[in-house]
Design a protein that fits this description.
Chain lengths: 195, 556
C-alpha cells in the first residue's frame, strides 16, 4: 500500500466515525473509491475536481452534508459525492448562491468555535460536536440552503456530480428506467384491483 | 412553416398557444384563413419532444429551452387578500411555452356536469357572490366535448352516474393503468359506499392518431412528455395548423397591446420579440387566448381613447370574478409499497361529492383524486410526514420507511365567483419588459373554506378506510395563484355584466374574440381544461361562420 493510499484511507476512516462495521467491511473498496475525491483532489493537486470550493471549504461542506444524510449501514451524502454536486451547482444552476456559501462557511466556523473554543475547523470536530453545531444552526438560511442542496444532490441524476452509483435512488428503491409496466406496487397487483 | 410579414395584414392573430389557442389556430387555418400565433414562452421541444428532459434537477432549474412555466422573476405578480391591503410578492405562475399549460399538466379532463351550467337557478342565488347561470347549456356544448375528446385524445371510461357528465360517445382510448393509489382509493371508497371513476386524462393509454401510448415513466406532471403521449396542444392541434401552410407560430412573442382604430375595431397587436423589440402585427381580427389571468391583464394594458378603462371593458367586469383554484390534500402511509412514482400523477377519483348538498350547510362540491406522485428530490425535500426529522440519522431512517409507501388524496373544489376577486395592474411593480405586473386580489368565500375543510376530512376518512397505518392533512389553504385560473372575462348575455357573448365575441369589439379559462362563468370543480377545449371548438365554429358571412366587423 503506497503512502498516498494510506493517507487516503486515514482520511476516510477519520471521516467515517460511527459507520456500521459490517457495512464498512462489505463495501470498503467502494467507499475508498467513492469517498476519496476531496482528499484525492488535494493530494494530487488536480484543479478540475472542484470549480468553486477550495479543499478546506470542500471538507467543511462535505462534513455538513454527511451529517445531513449520514453514512450508517447504507451509503450517505459522502458516498454520493454530494459535495461535488454542490460545487458544480455553484458554478452552474445555483451560481447566485456563491456568496451565501462563503458567508455561511464563516458562520459555520464561528458556531464551531463558540461550541468548542479553539476549534479550527468544523470538519475536525467529533461527530457529536458537529451535530451540536448544526443543531444550533438548523434554523439559519445557510443550513437550509445546504440541506436543500444535499438532498437535491443525493437524489439528482448522477450526471450532476452527486448520487454516485445511484446510491440515493437505491436508498429509496427508486427505479430510474423511465419505462414501467403495471402493476407498479403491491395494492394494484391484488386480484381485486385488476380488471 | 409559413412566415408572414408583420406589416401585411393576416386574417387572425391568436394570442397564446395553449388549451384554447392551439385549437383556435387549427380550426381557423383549416378553414382557409391565415393565422399568426403569438406565444409568450419559448419553443420548448416542439417537434422534437423526445428531447424533453426527465432529469428532475434540470426540470427544476430550466434553461431557456426547458422552461415550461412563467418565470416569477421576469414575469412577476403581486398578491393581496383584499383591496385594503398592500400587495406583496405573488406566487402565481402558468404554462408558458408553445402549447401552454397543456405541455406539462396532469391532464385531468373532466367535463362540467349539465347542472353546473345553471347552478344559480338550481341551487339558488348566494348573496354577495357572482354565482349566475351560464348563457349556454350543457346540451349546446356536448357535441364539442366529444369533438375535443376525440381530436385531443382523452383516455377514460364512460360511466352512467349522477356524479359524472353524460356522454353521447365513448372516449377514444381506454383508461390508463390503475395505480396502487387508485386501488387503495377503491378499497377505501367501497367501505364507505363511495364511487371511484378512472380517468379521464389527456394522456393516451395506447397508440392513437400517430402518437405512442404512455410508458409510465413517472416524470409526468410538471415535465414535458418525451413519447408524445400527453395530448398537449403542441403535439395535436398545433402541428395540424402549421401543416396547412397558413399558420405561423412565433415563440417568445409577448403581446402587450391590442390596437384599435377610431371606430373601435381591432387592427392587430404590438408585441415584444425575443430581443425585446416592439413589433406590430396587423390582423383583421384577434383571438385572445392568453389564460384566465393574462387575457384580462392584456385587455387592461390595452387602453386607448375609445377604451379608457381597458379594451372590451365598458362593463368594468374585465379582471373580476377571478377563481384561482382551491385544492386540499390528505396523505397516508400504508404497510406495503405503492411505487406510485411510476405512471401518471393520478387516474382515479371519488365523484360522490361533486354536487353541492344543502344538508352540509354550505355551498360547495369537489372531486377527490388519488395520487402518490413523488419524484426523488421532491420526496427528499418535502415528502415526509409533518414533524418528521429534517436531517441526520433519523431523517435518513424516515426516508427509507416512507418512500413508496405514501399516497395522497387531493380534492379539487369549487370556488365561488366574487367581483372583489380580481386581476388588475400593479401600480408599482413592473415586469422585465417594464410593463405593470399583474396584481391579484383574492379571498375565497367562507363557503369555499368550509368546502376545503369538508374535503380535508373526507380525504382522511377514505385513507383510513383504505387501511392507512397513519394519516395526516395540513391546514386548508386559500389559493394565491394556480394554473387553473378562471373567470376574468366572463361570458354572458348582458354587456353590462359580462365581457363576451355566448360565442366568445367581446360585447364591445366585434372583431375581438376571447377564448380561454377567463370565460368560465362558474369554475366547475376546478378541473377546467376540457371545458376550455370544448368551448374553443364551439367558438371557432361560430367565428368561422361570421368570417365567411363577412359580419366580423359589424356591430350587432
Amino acid at each position: 500500500m503506497s503512502a498516498r493510499t494510506t493517507s487516503r484511507r486515514a482520511f476516510l476512516v477519520e471521516s467515517m466515525a460511527g459507520v456500521g462495521a459490517a457495512w464498512f467491511a462489505a463495501h470498503y473498496a467502494g467507499i475508498l473509491e467513492a469517498g476519496e475525491f476531496v482528499a484525492h483532489a488535494a493530494q494530487t493537486g488536480q484543479p478540475a475536481v472542484f470549480q468553486f470550493f477550495t479543499r478546506e471549504q470542500a471538507l467543511e461542506i462535505e462534513a455538513m452534508t454527511s451529517q445531513i444524510i449520514p453514512t450508517d449501514d447504507t451509503p450517505g451524502a459522502r458516498e454520493a459525492h454530494v459535495v461535488q454536486f454542490i460545487d458544480r451547482a455553484l458554478t452552474t444552476f445555483e451560481k447566485n448562491q456563491q456568496t451565501a456559501y462563503v458567508q455561511g462557511l464563516t458562520e459555520l466556523q464561528a458556531q464551531s468555535q463558540k461550541l468548542v473554543p479553539g476549534a479550527v475547523r468544523f470538519s475536525a470536530l467529533t461527530s457529536d460536536q458537529q451535530i451540536q453545531v448544526l443543531t444550533a444552526m438548523e434554523r439559519t438560511p445557510f443550513f437550509n440552503l445546504v440541506r436543500t442542496h444535499t438532498i437535491s444532490g443525493f437524489f439528482a441524476h448522477p450526471s450532476h456530480g452527486g448520487n454516485a452509483n445511484k446510491v440515493g435512488w437505491k436508498l429509496v428503491s427508486y427505479d430510474d428506467s423511465l419505462h414501467h409496466t403495471p402493476p407498479f406496487g403491491y395494492y394494484d397487483a391484488q386480484p381485486t384491483a385488476r380488471r | 412553416m409559413m412566415q408572414f410579414t408583420p406589416s401585411s395584414e393576416v386574417d387572425f392573430v391568436v394570442i397564446g398557444s395553449g388549451a384554447a389557442g392551439g385549437i383556435m389556430a387549427k380550426q381557423l387555418s383549416l378553414a382557409g384563413y391565415s393565422v399568426v400565433v403569438l406565444e409568450q414562452g419559448g419553443w420548448g421541444k416542439y417537434g422534437h419532444e423526445q428531447d424533453w428532459t426527465k432529469d428532475e434537477w434540470v426540470n427544476d432549474h430550466p434553461g431557456p429551452d426547458d422552461e415550461l412555466m412563467s418565470d416569477p422573476e421576469r414575469q412577476p405578480n403581486t398578491f393581496r387578500r383584499t383591496a385594503n391591503d398592500k400587495a406583496g410578492p405573488g406566487t402565481h405562475s402558468y404554462g408558458c411555452v408553445v402549447g401552454g399549460g397543456t405541455v406539462s399538466y396532469g391532464g385531468s379532463s373532466w367535463r362540467h356536469l349539465p347542472w353546473e351550467f345553471n347552478e344559480a337557478s338550481t341551487v339558488g342565488p348566494i348573496a354577495g357572490t357572482g354565482l349566475v347561470d351560464w348563457p349556454i347549456s350543457y346540451a349546446e356544448l356536448e357535441p364539442y366535448y366529444v369533438q375535443a375528446e376525440w381530436e385531443m385524445g382523452i383516455s377514460g371510461e364512460r360511466v352512467s352516474s349522477p356524479f359524472v357528465a353524460p356522454m353521447s360517445k365513448d372516449y377514444p382510448v381506454p383508461p390508463v393503468a390503475l395505480k396502487a393509489s387508485g386501488a387503495l382509493m377503491m378499497t377505501g371508497a367501497s367501505k364507505l359506499g363511495l364511487h371511484v371513476v378512472r380517468g379521464p386524462l389527456a394522456v393516451i393509454s395506447k397508440d392513437y392518431m400517430g402518437r405512442s401510448g404512455c410508458v409510465n415513466c413517472g416524470m409526468c406532471s410538471g415535465f414535458g412528455c418525451h413519447v408524445r403521449a400527453r395530448s398537449s396542444s403542441a403535439v395535436t392541434v398545433l402541428p395540424i395548423a402549421v401543416k396547412t401552410g397558413r399558420c405561423e407560430i412565433r415563440a417568445r412573442s409577448y403581446v402587450h397591446e391590442i390596437t384599435v382604430n377610431s371606430s373601435g375595431r381591432v387592427t392587430g397587436v404590438v408585441y415584444f420579440d425575443a430581443n425585446k423589440r416592439p413589433v406590430r402585427q396587423l390582423a383583421k381580427a384577434v383571438v385572445l387566448s392568453a389564460n384566465g389571468t393574462e387575457s384580462s391583464r392584456l385587455l387592461l394594458l390595452s387602453k386607448s381613447a375609445q377604451f379608457p378603462n381597458g379594451l372590451a371593458n365598458s362593463s368594468g367586469v374585465v379582471g373580476r370574478y377571478l377563481m384561482l383554484g382551491n385544492t386540499v390534500s390528505a396523505s397516508g402511509l400504508f404497510e406495503h409499497p405503492l411505487n406510485d412514482y411510476k405512471g401518471l400523477v393520478t387516474g382515479a377519483a371519488i365523484v360522490d361529492y361533486v354536487p353541492t348538498d344543502p344538508k352540509r350547510g354550505f355551498y360547495g362540491g369537489g372531486r377527490m383524486t388519488a395520487r402518490g406522485f413523488d419524484t426523488p428530490i421532491n420526496f427528499g425535500l418535502r415528502g415526509l410526514q409533518p414533524g418528521a426529522p429534517r436531517w441526520g440519522a433519523a431523517y435518513k431512517k424516515a426516508l427509507v420507511a416512507e418512500a413508496n409507501h405514501k399516497m395522497t388524496i387531493t380534492s379539487f373544489v369549487t370556488q365561488l365567483p366574487l367581483d372583489t376577486n380580481r386581476v388588475d395592474l400593479d401600480p408599482d411593480v413592473k415586469d422585465a419588459w417594464g410593463l405593470p405586473a399583474m396584481r391579484i386580489t383574492s379571498q375565497s368565500h367562507p363557503d369555499d373554506i368550509k368546502s376545503m375543510e369538508f374535503f380535508r376530512q373526507k380525504g382522511l376518512d377514505v385513507l383510513t378506510a383504505a387501511g392507512a397505518t397513519k394519516v395526516w392533512a395540513g391546514a386548508v389553504n386559500d389559493s394565491r395563484g394556480s394554473a387553473h385560473n378562471r373567470g376574468t372575462c366572463r361570458m354572458g348575455n348582458d354587456p353590462r355584466t359580462s365581457v363576451v357573448d355566448k360565442f366568445h365575441r367581446a360585447h364591445d369589439v366585434p372583431n375581438l374574440y376571447i377564448v380561454d379559462g377567463s370565460n368560465l362563468v362558474t369554475g366547475g370543480r376546478n378541473h377546467p381544461t376540457m371545458t376550455i377545449q370544448a368551448l374553443a371548438f364551439r367558438a371557432a365554429e361560430h367565428l368561422i361562420k361570421s368570417a365567411k358571412a363577412g359580419t366580423l366587423n359589424r356591430s350587432r
